[in-house]
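Long-time lurker. I teach an intro course on protein structure, and each term I like to show students one example going from raw sequence to a predicted 3D structure in token notation. This year I'd like something fresh instead of my usual example. Would anyone be willing to generate the tokens for the chain below so I can use it in lecture? Attribution to the forum is fine with me.
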Amino acid sequence: MPIRRKSKILIVDDEEVVRLFLERFFRLKGFEVGLAESGAKAIEKMRGEVFDLVFLDVRMPQMNGLEALRELKKIAPSTKIVMMTGYAVDDLLKEAQQSGACASIKKPFDMNQLAALLEGVSLQKEKDARLNILVIDDEEVVRKFLVRLLSEHRVITVESGKEAMERIAQEKIDLVFLDIVLKDINGLELARQITKARD
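-- Reply from a regular --
Happy to contribute to a lecture. Here you go:
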């Protein structure tokens, strides 16, 4: 089983009390936490570190949360960003969602809502990390072994080159396990066909 690093969260808010409150909460949940008091500082941090999740205040001096969101998405497009606000700024939140924010949360924080939001985003991250793996082998015992071995991912099994090409035409495949000796086609020839189909 591979060793997984702790997920890292960046908290971006110009109010120190908010930063420290969230830092304590997330550390208790087992996350690594970075802090930034402005959009500019957040951008600087994101250029030097990898964060899985950002909690970003909408209202900040100099650079507001929406402007910071757009810049952060340029640096790390796959990082999940949650907008935080203590004001009624529905138009800004809608614009933030269109710019790539995955959720929003209102201040003062409801602890249950915060925990549920955190769990939802974490589950989505795990879902996004799953690969579509295609196993091409005419031996059932090998196919079953690889399904068990790769159980953290979505594993599709086929026993012929024909079936393999049909599945590749139907859906996105991230990784292929291919037997060199198949009943209907040479594995090397099939590998060439798969490479050509995915280009």
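Some talking points for your students: Residues 132-198 form a domain with the Rossmann fold fold (CATH 3.40.50.2300). The chain has two domains: 8-129, 132-198.
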